[in-house]
Amino acid sequence: MENSMGNRLAPCLYVDIDKAEQFVSDEDSRLIDSSECELLQLECTTGIGSIVDLKFNKDRMILLDNNRQRLHIINKAGVCEHEISCLGRAANEYIEITDFFATDESVYILDMASLKVIEYDYNGTYMGKTQINEYWANKLFVVDENIFLINEGSDTKHGRRHIFEMQKDGGVVNSYIPFEVSPGLSCEYAYGLHSKDTILYAERESNTIYKISRSTCEPFLTLDFGNYNLPEKFKTMDARDLMFNTNQEYQKYALGIEKIFVSQKYIFVKFQAKNNNYLLVIDHKRKSIVFCGRGIRIERMFQLGLRDYYIHDNFIYDVYDKEDFISVVDYKMKESKNNDNDYMKQLHSLMAERESENWNPIIIKYKIKNE
Fold it and tell me: Measured on CA atoms in the order 139, 186, 113, 149, is the torsion positive or negative?
């Protein structure tokens, strides 16, 4: 098993935090298309609660709720058409969903409690499993039927690598992105689909984004925060150590890539610097910055977001659980000068419905401009 990356270096993109914008409207950002916006009222008889992860295939959304015990398969209309719930210790069962990945044909569940990856079809039929006893994984993705395990910083019998690529039978194909010392911080959301057979993966310690396909891992882009780059002495510290053992000095710096999402044209990067949250949007073909600022406020359409969102294809999916939705809409109704437009009427009607016993979340779907 070898690392096929060689000594290639990624092109560097300088991020000037001092010139970052404050919060801008969706219109001023020139990234959100106001011609298409949809309010998805999720319907599931068992109740979804809070969404902790959301993945997609060509026809469905796949939701993981905060119990981490079942996956909800949601169709385009927002209706749960099936659930994958196979708790247990048998070969075709899992103890807990550590992470999951969706392809067009299958869902792969990572269960680190039983050290295996299980494949199901969208009816919940068991398709097979891969034992990963000699590895450690915090997340996974699948490219062209090969399984990629993401190791945030643990030692394994096969060395210290952030990525291990293996076949379904457990045979290891390759490993990528070696590290010597375990990093203190890791990405909360570490990858996005660049194409059907290519993933963009973010490694937080070096702020490098890698382009990964079957048997290949290449540095794609490295973010350089200049004087705000986190000093080496802080890179092995976790969030608690940074908070209590640096005399707040860490607040002067950029803490690296926290989340990465990929649309048809852009890479959306969330990071924290100078004790504030920032959004960076990169044109991934030109490898140039199109926006850097504190965030984007939706001031047209439903006037909500962007907050806890996911991105797929050319759309942003902004997620609200019941309690958040009710409180945010109630506040918006009191503050808004125009509650008679169609968007606000939809929100008011849906808020009244959600005040009953309906515990299912709401998703607002915004279209991303590609101009």
Answer: positive
State whether residue 75 is helix, strand or coil: coil
Q: How many CA atoms lie within 13 A of 68 on its CB side?
A: 13
| Pick from 297, 299, 301: nearest CA to 341 | 301
| Three-class SS state of 233 | helix
Task: Give the mean pLDDT of the chain.
Answer: 90
* Burial call 84-122: b when 16+ CB within 10 Å, e when fewer: bebeeeeeebbeebbbbbbbeebbbbbbbebebbbbbeb
Write the single-letter amino acid at 325. Answer: F
The DSSP bridge partners found for residue 198 are 195
Predicted local confidence at residue 117, as pLDDT: 97
Question: What Cα–Cα distance (Å) separates residue 94 from each residue in 111, 114, 122, 132, 150?
Answer: 6, 7, 16, 14, 19
User: d(Cα 354, Cα 171) in Å, to the nearest integer?
Assistant: 49
Question: Cα–Cα distances in Å, from 341 out to 97, 299, 303, 347?
Answer: 42, 13, 11, 10
C-alpha distances (whole Å) from 210 to each of 144, 199, 254, 284, 328 are 17, 8, 20, 12, 37
Q: Is the peptide bond between 347 and the residue preceding it cis, with omega within 30 degrees of 0? A: no
Tell me which amino acid residue 174 is: N
64 closest CA partner among 26, 17, 25, 111: 111
Give the mean model confidence (pLDDT) for residues 139-163.
94
Name the pLDDT band for 175 (thresholds 50, 70, 90). very high
CB-based contacts of 235, cutoff 8 Å, min separation 6? 181, 183, 184, 185, 205
- 73-130 confidence digits (pLDDT tens): 999 899 999 999 999 999 999 999 999 999 999 999 999 999 999 999 999 999 999 9
Q: What is the mean pLDDT of residues 167-191?
A: 91
Gap between the Cα atoms of 221 and 31, Å rounded? 21
Could you read off the pLDDT of 258-298 as tens digits, one per residue?
999 999 999 999 999 999 999 999 999 999 999 999 999 88
Predicted TM-score (pTM) of the model is 0.92
